[in-house]
User: What shape does this take?
Amino acid sequence: MDEIVRSWTSELLDSGNLLALAVGVVALALVASHGTWGLLRNVVTIAHEGGHAVIALLSGRTLNGIRLHSDTSGLTVSTGKPTGPGMVFTLFAGYPAVSLLGLGGAWLVSSDGARLMLWISVGLLAVMLLAIRNAYGVLSVVLTGGVVFAVSWFATPAWQALCCLLFSWFLLFGGIRPVAELRRKRAGGRAPNSDADQLARLTGVPPAMWLGLWMLIGLGALLAGGRWLLLIPQV
Assistant: This one.
């Protein structure tokens, strides 16, 4: 079986290969399917809340903790000035974080850095675990980190490359769906305190503008990351 995967992986070095496209289609199906999305959205929530946490720290705020819930929602609590650029950037960072992580993963995969991508992911999850403040959140991060660690430690390079390819595609597509979901929730009056609404209250910029900007970032990351994944250069 590994020889088959090794053969497939070698095709990743061919410009415009069909394998990378096929893996992208699988990732899209995982994101589009209600059944798989309900489970895998936890990974997206981890990335989303991690984005809030990182920018909160970089902007000088105090990170009080992160909670992940079984309905795939999350909450990152930080203290500091309630207005100003630090708060704005912290609120803004969640949705783009998923797409930008996917973009970074696509770059690493295209640069033959699959193993490095796996170890970076394990490191980020380990650091995030220190900030988790509820049992379900601990379980989610530990399980996700366990899977990534198992691939990095036990899988062959061929399987590592294939898994990282799938993971990158998943984050690129998974960064877009939550923005579309939030737009539908807001249209139904079911998300009055969303990141977009909080940003609107802080800045005076309408929530629709923030949603549009997040969608543009997600689509831009998908186009750039997809190009890297589909056009991996010959080495």
